[in-house]
Structure formats: structure tokens, C-alpha cells
């Protein structure tokens, strides 16, 4: 049960949630624009016909506007979870509830830009699919390109851009539809260290300005602790959430937490207690968390 949703709901909702009613939690999540996941399960079928759980009865809440990073070893289902949240795969059981109306934006490791379209037209593509008038989508796309530092390159084709620039276009395209939830799957992992650090800073600035909900998958612990307000660590083989933690403000505390998460992912530690992360209220002026 998420204390955040209890705090944000009406008195009647709070009473239902306090009683442990999962339906009430989901209703509270959608009432305030968050994400509610209940009993989410996904199997893959081996060549011998055996079913193996990648995600097994996973339940959690994300309050609106929270930046959540998802960590885990290979095989823990990080990308599968993101695909389920984004509707790109269907669960075998369970459900995901979003606010209504809601929209989701996607940023993947591979940018998947349309090579025959200009940077501007790539950013405006989702708007065109939604029937937005040409002049309006051009205005919005140009504004977003300015936001990500590519305002002077709107007429270029993607093959003229560096990897970091392409990911900036990819991010601008996702933001163009004004998503309530932004889903990001290791978007900076293929970039060099300097470019990755710069884009991480830009992403934080954009999130602070827009306060969309962000669910960000990464295998880099330092990236998760640098970006997120909250970190969820998934266990391999459908083991579920091993840790669900608020990210501390101080660098020393984050370094200590990184060591604990390393040990947890490596299987050398017991799951870390997760009392403080679910409500997402972390006081951190230096990170504006």
C-alpha cells in the first residue's frame, strides 16, 4: 500500500486504502495522475514448452511527477516491465492503471529516428499522428529542439547527427506529445561518458521544469542515483522487487547506498528494507527531488 496515495486521496479513499483494498489504491493512483501496478506477471516459453516468469506478481505505485529508476541484473525483467507499462507487450496476469486521460512517451536505447525525415519532422511525427495542425506542430517541435539544444539543426537529416544529438532528438520527439508518463529504457548507455553526463543533466532540468512521471531503466547504479528520486531493484527470474528506496540528498549517503545496491544485485546481501521510498517525498534541495 502506498502512503502517498492515501495522503493525496479523499477521506473516504484513505479509509479504503488503509483497509488494504487494492482496488481503492488503484483508484487513488488514477485520481491523481500516478501509475498503479497490481499483480503484474509475464512469462516466456522455453523451447521445451516450459513457462518461466520474467515478471511475477509485481505490485507498486508511482505518484505523479516522480522520477523512478529501475535497476537489476540481466534477466530481472527491467525492459519487459517497461514494455508492459507502455502497452508494447501484454501481461499474462495483473494490470497497470494510469490517469485518464493519460499519454506515454518512449525513449529507447536505439533512437529509431526516421532517416528520410528532417530533425524537425521527426520531433513532430507524433503530433502529426494525432492530427495536430502543421503550424502548431512546427511551433512545438522548434520549441522542443531549442530545449534540447538543437534549435539550429531542425532541417538536418538524422545521419548528419552524432549519437548524442540523435538521442536529444529522440527525447524531444517523446516530449512533443506532452506525456504524463515518460518511459526510458537505457537511453544513454551507448553514449560516451561526457555526452552521457551532459544528457543526464539536461534530462534532470527538463524533468524539473515539466514534472512528468519518469520511469527510467538502467543497469548503471551511479546513473540511477544521480537521476532518480527513487530506485527500485528487481531480482532475476521473477524474484520481484528486492529493494525500493528513496535516493538520499548527500553524495556520501548515495555512495553508501550504491555499495549496498551493488551487493544486492550481486546476490551478496539480503534485500534492503524499503520503508521510505513508496511515498516519494524526499527532502533534497540540491537535487530538487
Automatic annotation (TrEMBL):
An MF annotation (GO) of this entry: ATP hydrolysis activity
Keywords on record: ATP-binding, Cell inner membrane, Cell membrane, Membrane, Nucleotide-binding, Transport
PROSITE patterns on file: ABC_TRANSPORTER_1 (PS00211), ABC_TRANSPORTER_2 (PS50893)
The keyword DNA damage belongs to this UniProt entry's keyword annotation: no
Residue intervals of the ABC transporter domain: 35-261
Annotated InterPro entries: AAA+_ATPase, ABC_transporter-like_ATP-bd, ABC_transporter-like_CS, ABC_transporter_ATP-bind, P-loop_NTPase
Domain of life: Bacteria
SMART domains for this protein: AAA (SM00382)
Family in the record: Belongs to the ABC transporter superfamily.
Name the UniProt record assigns to this protein: NitT/TauT family transport system ATP-binding protein
Organism encoding this protein: Chitinasiproducens palmae
